[in-house]
Amino acid sequence: MKLRYSATSPYVRKVVVLALETGLDHRIERVPTSAAPTKASPEIAAENPLGKVPSLTTDDGQHLYDSPVICEYLDSLHEGGRAFPTPGPLRWTALRQQALADGILDASLLIRYEMGRSADKQWDEWMAGQKRKVVQALDALEAEAARLGDAVTIGTISIGCALGYLDFRFAADDWRRGRPTLAAWYEKFAARPSMAATMPKDPT
């Protein structure tokens, strides 16, 4: 399999963490790929018409995107415990948690893109709206953090990657403030080998 990736993408990190957790990492060739929302990339578009990473090419040549689809595909390839629980309450909880964490990432990236514009062109109300989504989502996670436990599902993987991204790009906002239960859970989850091995950092 071939995975197009960017080292700083939290969506790519989700895929790699799951691959490490399921023992599939050795089967995946990682292809570093630059993907920017303002620049066309024919090589990415040939595999993913949305022009984004991650994009996975399977052994039989099928192109899969985006991270929820890739993660569920990878989870079907091993015999261990499933990151995507079987249909029932646990599955819906894990999928909801993934959606909430991905929503944090979506809003955070929109803020990053807006901050990249010159100050006179930035839309303050837009950024405030995105920040409100992040705060509301974090408060919701704090409310259920005591129930996250030691589970390794697509939900907890996604939450861990979202919180790691906030540390990476929005450290000054200090998401831990006022959220002690979530902070304690994350400290333990972030120590997992799969998370420690994928800690985001800017290229040198």
What does this structure look like?
This protein is α+β, with helices and mostly antiparallel strands. The chain has 2 domains: 2-75, Glutaredoxin, CATH 3.40.30; 89-196, Up-down Bundle (Glutathione S-transferase Yfyf (Class Pi), Chain A, domain 2), CATH 1.20.1050.10. It is built from 8 helices and 4 strands. The chain has helices at 10-22, 42-45, 67-75, 89-115, 124-144, 154-169, 180-189, 193-196; strands at residues 2-5, 29-32, 55-57, 63-64. A 4-stranded mixed β-sheet has the order 2-1-3-4. α5 crosses α7. The chain is globular and about 50 Å long.
Short structural description:
Helix content is 51%, strand content 6%.
Q: Determine the strand fraction and express it as a percent band.
A: 5-15%
Q: What's the number of structural domains? A: 2
Largest sheet: 4 strands, mixed
Architecture per CATH nomenclature, i.e. the level-2 architecture of the largest domain? Up-down Bundle
CATH fold naming of the largest domain: Glutathione S-transferase Yfyf (Class Pi), Chain A, domain 2
Mean pLDDT: 95
The residue ranges in which pLDDT falls below 50 over 5 or more consecutive positions are: none
Helical fraction equals 40-55%
- This entry's quaternary arrangement is single chain
The secondary-structure class comes to alpha+beta
Q: CATH top level of the largest domain?
A: Mainly Alpha
The helix-strand sequence is: EHEHEEHHHHHH
- Provide the spatial order of strands within the biggest beta sheet: 2-1-3-4
Please report the total strand number as a whole number. 4
C-alpha end-to-end distance: 27 Å
The general outline is: globular
Q: If helices are DSSP runs of H or I spanning 4 or more residues, what is the number of helices?
A: 8
Tell me the radius of gyration.
Answer: 17 Å
